[in-house]
Amino acid sequence: MSTEIKVPSLGESVVEATVAKWYKNQGDHVAIDEPLVELETDKVTLEVPSPCRGQLKIISAKEGETVEVGALLGQITEGEVDNKVGEKVIEGENKIPENKPQEIQQSETQDNNSETDKVDVDNKKFVTNIEKLSPAVRKIVDEQKIDLSNIEPKRSDGRITKGDLINNVNTSEMQTENNEPILSNTDLSNTELRKEVPMSRLRQTIAKRLKDAQNNAAILTTFNEVDMFQLIETRNEYKESFESKYGVKLGFMSFFVKACITALKEIPDVNAEIQDNKIIYKNFYNIGVAVGTDQGLVVPVLRDADKKSIIEIEKEIFELGNRARSGKLSITDMQEGTFTVSNGGVYGSLMSTPILNPPQSGVLGMHKIEKRPIVIDDEISIRPMMYLALSYDHRIIDGKAAVTFLVRVKEGLEDPRRLLLGV
Q1: Which H or E run contains 389?
Q2: Which of the residues 241, 315, 357, 399 has an alpha carbon 20 to 30 A from that of 196?
């Protein structure tokens, strides 16, 4: 009995995905609920589990293919595993099994073409049919419009290689009308030194959204710096007991989230957005926390963060971060954010101008903590300082409001007791 593997529902407004990676090969045994294939949408990646126990007989959608909701991904033969590996079926046609070693496929291809490819080198009968060339050589010949009839191959089988093209670089057939070579050793080497890969759906979406933000918003950035001494002291004093009691480490991000919420309540423009010719003010505080992953930057959202304690925020940040890095975020995890916090300091960034996460009107950039000399009560002191950057949409937020917002964040962080007491 065969069971079909189909593309599941991908969430609201998402109708197609890209097959990112198969975890199993054709013919492999699979267990029920075992991850089979990873699908990538323009928002999240998700794994499709095995619906039953058996053998993966057919893979119908190759890696890199675009598939719609409900499309066939493959088939599983339920029950015990046999040793025969089924042929991979793509769009109803039998193809060479992908698990066959590449060397064997190349050897078979060469054997099939052996009669037509053999040449008599002594009589200078060379391969001139471009279809018989390797893809790399064929690309160069096609781009440079090289006449193969005047190129002498060095291989015993008469095949023309890139080396043959290099050796003939100065012949008249490979020169321009100005008698300048149009092919060089560097040009040929580039085909080996560079690697081209298609952009993932997530990366394409990130690129589009960020470019749209630049095109549609009037983005400005204002800066300030915060003395992290008191916050570091508070964290060092309680971090061991906090982790022991709650099972997560006490970080700085929860304090930054709390400080931003305090400032957002005072400066509501930063928590608003523009829709057509209207300003939408939001009386809820869903704070996005940017997370870097291997697939790209994602921004899971802490919903109703104003109603949560430092403990709850730390736990949720920890859980969302793990899910983001393992590709387990759902689409709803990244929707309805009202403001974003991005910590470039974990990568060593000293200063940056963060870009808006549309349709939000503000984003706070955190940076690395660095000891610097500052003046306190007319005396020079060495303090752990951090630069803060607020990028904002000047269409809705005036400079005064942006600066005031950043000052309130600074005040809350420099005296964390205010955050804990809510004053």
Answers
A1: strand 379-393
A2: 357
Amino acid found at 77: T
- Cα–Cα distance measured from residue 412 to residue 420, given in angstroms and rounded to the nearest whole number: 10
pLDDT, position 201? 75
Domain boundary assignment for the chain? 2-100, 115-193, 201-421
Q: Which pLDDT band holds residue 187 (cuts at 50, 70, 90)?
A: low
Distance CA(164)–CA(174), nearest Å, equals 12
CATH architecture of 2-100: Beta Barrel (2.40)
Q: Could you tell me how many residues make up the chain?
A: 423
Strand 89-90 relative to strand 16-22: parallel, antiparallel, unpaired?
unpaired
Taking 50 as the threshold, does the pLDDT of residue 105 lie above it? no
d(CA 237, CA 402): 33
Which residues are tagged catalytic? 394, 398
Please provide residue 278's backbone torsions phi and psi, each rounded to the nearest 5 degrees.
-120, 150
**Contact between residue 160 and residue 153 where contact means Cβ atoms under 8 Å apart:** yes
Partners of 296 in beta bridges: 293
CATH number for the domain running over 201-421: 3.30.559.10
